[in-house]
Amino acid sequence: MMSSVDPEMPDWDDTDAQILERAAALVAARGTSRLTIAELAREAQVSRPTIYRRWSSTDEVVRAALLRQTVLILRRLEPEVHTREELVAEALRFADLFREDPVFGRLLSTEPDAFTQYSLERVGSSQRVMLRWLADAIAHAQNGGTVRAGDPGDMSVMLLLIVQSAVLSHNAVASLIGAAEWHAELTRAVDGYLRP
Q: Are the C-beta atoms of 171 and 180 separated by less than 8 Å?
């Protein structure tokens, strides 16, 4: 999966992390629409110019905060997988952690349009981090023969679509399928896609 030193990963210094942590907390508490640079500066105890030197708008701050949240989730997963079973388990664990995350959970439950804007309308930094993680995991499992042949990059895109779509639709279908059944069926879908 992701190595501990990834040259494509953002390099957040302590001030970046402090600002993005406060931005994530504000989004989790009140959503994206009311976030302002002035309020964020007060909450993070930095000046507005400090924020503007890093990001030019609240939109850029939100995207950076979501990228950091995604990275924090990925760091909770196993550092490497070697089999399809491990890959499926970690992909489902990512889906669970994603839905339980206070920031993404807020967007999914109260601002699905904002979630779509920041997560689905274009392939941004957060998606690229996930795709790289998935491609590495797929390649490792292919080497062991438990995942079918195919380009890991192409397969990572489709696997991300499967999991992301299921997560986005979870609340909409909650009255039709129980949480345990949803989890079981998504597991079967992911495993079936990867199975040789």
A: no
